[in-house]
Specification:
globular; about 0% strand
Length: about 180
């Protein structure tokens, strides 16, 4: 099982990365349709860019579940932890590097995304390989992922007025890009 999960987690890195990269443009490709807005960035805020990792990783976890996850102990906890680590990694790495150099750089943003995806997939792999499971974490992991997905939907249409939700290009927030 360890070899299988390692192969799947490694394969997931480029698949999630490229799927997320394509999602960056999907809102425009879809004519700025509100129906796709919860799943793709609707502006250039950090929050909206977290969707680039979250949704492809969630879909990929579903594919993994169908392929081998039903028979893998701790699968839901491992994948939930990996999926949650990706947006957290993006936030930490983005704000760390921009604090150090004073501005964002496109190639560093892309590298941040790739490193966060790799970290999430790596965490999933390590948790799948580990025998110990924490009951409380196992019971709360999936609900936290579901909550984050619901927050992506809610905050697309009604974002809090916090810096992570602010579009640095327009100064607006959310789908309407209201100031």
């Amino acid at each position: 099982m360890a070899t299988t999960s390692l192969r799947w987690e490694l394969l997931g890195i480029p698949l999630i990365f490229f799927a997320g990269s394509a999602l960056h443009f999907a809102f425009e490709w879809c004519g700025r349709a509100a129906l796709v807005a919860p799943f793709v960035p609707v502006n250039e805020s950090v929050w909206e860019h977290l969707k680039l990792a979250f949704w492809p990783a969630l879909v990929y976890a579903g594919v993994e579940y169908a392929a081998f996850g039903r028979n893998a102990a701790g699968f839901v906890l491992a994948k939930s932890a990996g999926i949650l680590l990706m947006p957290l990694g993006i936030i930490v790495l983005f704000y760390a590097y921009t604090a150090l150099i004073g501005h964002h750089v496109l190639w560093l943003d892309i590298l941040t995304f790739l490193v966060a995806v790799a970290a999430g997939q790596g965490a999933s792999c390590l948790l799948l390989a580990g025998a110990r499971q924490h009951a409380l974490l196992a019971r709360t992991a999936l609900p936290v992922v579901v909550l984050l997905g619901l927050l992506f939907v809610l905050f697309t249409f009604a974002p809090p007025r916090l810096p992570v939700f602010r579009d640095p290009v327009t100064g607006g927030y959310g789908l309407q890009n209201d100031r």
